[in-house]
Amino acid sequence: MEKSRLPSSILSRAARFAGIAALAATMAVGSTLSAMAQRVPVVRDAEIEALVREYAAPILGAAGLGRSKVDIVLVNDRAFNAFVAGRRIFINTGALMTAETPNEIIGVIAHEAGHIAGGHQERLRDQLARAQTMAIVAALLGAGALAAGAATDSSGLGQAGAGIIAGGSEMARRSLMGYQRSEETTADRSAATYLNATKQSAQGMLTTFKRFQSALSLAGTRVDPYQISHPMPRERIANLETVAKQSPYFGQKDSPALQERHNMIRVKIAAYTQGQSDASRLMQKFPGTLAARYGDAQVTYLYGNLASALQKADALVKANPSNPYFHELRGDILMKANRAPQAVEAYSNAVRYDKANSGILPIQLGQAYLAMGSKDSLEKAVAQIRKGLDRDRENPSGYRYLAQAYGQLGQIPDAELATADGYYYAGAYNDAKIFAMRAQQKLKPGSPGWVRAQDIINYKAPRKK
How high is the pLDDT of residue 83? Predict the structure, then answer.
């Protein structure tokens, strides 16, 4: 797993409304995924991404989104949460680790697909503009009353003006929250429809809402239902339960093989993000399984002895020779042990068996070739990393390794252009322009590299919200 580090009112009281306008920031994404990584901590992992996309594919098809590119993005956050921005569904690693079944995550994806298919983000922008107008009008009216109160030396009129400002902002906020709650309910209903169309159960959605309700109860939290953007969990359960239980697929269970894969990514997430103890506690829930053995190998690699970790990875590969992620784990262990030639073999097998055609695995293979250092291996590193970037062009780390390989080969213009691309996809546009200009000075005018450098130089970054 790789974490990208690659993310004026008239009166001051009217500034209280800025909290509503700030909601728009969750919907405004730049042109690249890595630019978004500046606001949220994005995690890249070939295995987890492949499985979650597999969960999503039937749902997106049922939602009419199968032919439109919808990306699934992993966020390094322990909270059980997911959200939509543009044509991207962001899912927290905490949600994946907490969900005990694939069906729970599939329900989450179905809900978020409902938001995209329903065009809720576009309509929310309209609501934000409407709410802003309401608050501004209230501020103007309040300002007028305050001015009149000051001119007539009337404290009552002045207090009324302040009340108009505060009341107008509150009314605008409540109106927006009410609109968001209605859209959440609509997305829940759409999710149930998609699940039914794909012959899957809505039980996972109900489990999720019951988890939220239990968390509120345990926290002893008293929530004003009119002050939140989502319906209360009890209300959502009531709205969904009847529809869900009427489906002939309500009792449908995830296949044992899919459940095993789900448990495997859960222990991987726990090992990488929460530590050895949490991963061990999770593995105790399914002792003796392939997922537990995989988790044990991951934990040993991260926190234990590399020789022992390699033995455990070898056993996994022997039992499941076509699993690309067991070969990937072997490669990771061998790279950490400074055994790059053997890592090349392991990563090559990972690429060979990867049916999902991830761009991450060829880049890892390229890193192993890069570590070998010979001219031949550096040329192979360039070929593999470029192969990975062709599949996953918004991967800043890939460009960084590509720049290293070009640099060691003495191909400086290409190295500088790769560095520019890395900065560009990381959202560091000023640095990207600097390296693009340096590269362009050495590249043949009109060549593909020269044109790409010009594109970066001419790029205008979106305004920050």
Answer: 87
Average pLDDT score over residue span 208-234: 53
Give the C-alpha separation, 238 to 223, whole Å. 18
Ordered alpha helix ranges (H), 304-428: 306-319, 324-336, 340-353, 360-372, 375-391, 396-409, 412-425
Extract the tokens encoding 460: 């205008």
Q: Beta strands of 207-299 (E only): which ranges?
A: none
| pLDDT number for residue 248 | 95
Helix 102-117 vs helix 120-152: angle between axes, to the nearest 10 degrees? 60
Nearest CA to 264 out of 279, 253, 276 is that of 279
Contact 51, 355 (CB under 8 A): no
Alpha helices in 153-201 (DSSP H): 155-197
Q: Which two tokens stand for residue 246?
A: 């009427």
The residues, ordered by sequence, that sit 6+ positions from 103 with a Cβ below 8 Å of its Cβ are 200, 201, 203, 204, 253, 254
- Hey, what's the torsion of the CAs at 360, 269, 87, 17, to 10 degrees? -140
Can you give the residue ranges of every domain in the chain?
1-252
**Tally of CA atoms within 13 A in the half-sphere of 163 that contains its CB:** 7
Cα angle: 246, vertex 248, 254; to 5 degrees: 115
Output DSSP code: residue 289. S
Find the helix or strand (DSSP H, E) in which 241 lies. helix 233-246
Note whether 389 and 363 are within 8 A (CB). yes
Mean pLDDT of 294-323: 97
Confidence at residue 445, expressed as pLDDT on a 0 to 100 scale = 95
The burial class, CB within 10 Å (0-12 / 13-18 / 19+), for 373 is exposed
Is residue 219's pLDDT more than 90? Answer: no
Instruction: Name residue, tokens 């949460």.
Output: 81
C-alpha neighbours within 13 Å on the C-beta side of residue 421: 26
* 407 CB-contact burial (10 Å; exposed 0-12 / middle 13-18 / buried 19+): middle
